[in-house]
# Entry
Amino acid sequence: MRNFQASSALALLMATGAVPAGAQALSADEASTTDAALRTETLDRAEPLGGEVTVTARRRAEDAQRIPGSLSVVGGDLLDRSYTVNTQQLAQLVPALNYSSANPRNTAFTIRGLGSSVVAVSQANDGLEPGVGFYVDQVYHARPATAAFDFSDIAQVEVLRGPQGTLFGKNSTAGAINITTRAPSFTPEASQEFSVGSFNFVQARVAASGPLSGDTLAGRISAVVTRRDGVIDNVNTGRAHNQIGNQAVRGQLLFKPSDAVQVKLSADFTNFQSNCCTQVFYRVAGRDVPRTATRQYGGPTGLAAQFGYAPPSTNPYDRLTDIDAPLGVDTNEGGVGGIVDWNLGGATLTSVTAWRFWNWDAANDRDYTGIPIQLEQHIPSRQDQYSQELRLASNGDGPVSYVGGL
# Structure
């Protein structure tokens, strides 16, 4: 059997205007210019840009062209225009990045083919962690399952290739994904987006930011809601499995008592509830292979023959299943964090404090057939993490630049 997971298909973006019937297509030069503008949104060391792109790959803000390493940077504007709403689609913009996910718990990244796959023990055992570090606003996310949720209000994504243990710590031997969300603004702003697609796919994303108290306190709130009907039909129950139900909200406060000190507080919560995840048959072996010490339970003389069982279809494109037990995924993650930056003149002292949690529970018909072999399996998990980082980084590009911390 082969796992089947459908993406949100091609979403139809609802626009406020329409193209007139007599509108002409772009000329070759205009199309080339448009393509070039999109390409420049993604920075790769193999394709230098004329403009400056600021990154924090070395835990201090600097021009990406000064980084002595291999990295790709995807800006928030390109994420929005290319409708990149999750890390699965991010992998299409960064060739070296691979994302695989049989379900939210069994999620894995590899960079240049290195890391850990969903079949590796690091994904089957919640006590072990992956080889690609996943960071959001400077905070490490220990479980790759947190990357299975939709993006919410992202400013920039940096994908760092190769070992990053010196600056990013453990579990980054293959690389790191460094995500920065959009910060609160003292200029009022708001955005909203509504998308629809096949299988009754609906996604709504909203964000708003502005001052709360003069030039001292600003806030930002963002949310995303995604739903889609199931894509695998159960011939026994008539239900459709592997649906999507995802909700996320993030709130931030930015406090700037002076030009030298700023404090950013954030809280976020993401929830995923779905009638998910089952599989479809890819092909069925035709030879008699014993599966247990008692030969009568193996091959065509085994359980399938005893129950007179035949799969509903061996064509995966039929999207049919006949599981005979409840199915469901209930997982959520969230946390709070605080970042304090104190500009000392020649250097900036930074403190990053965070608490995060991840809950997982799923009900699976683990034999994935209509035969009552293993009707239900639960693998409940909860992970809590507390982190504290202190960092001192030089300002500007003097003859000596440094960063240190613990």
Observations:
- The radius of gyration is 24 Å.
- Residues 165 and 360 are 28 Å apart (CA to CA).
- The chain has a mean pLDDT of 80.
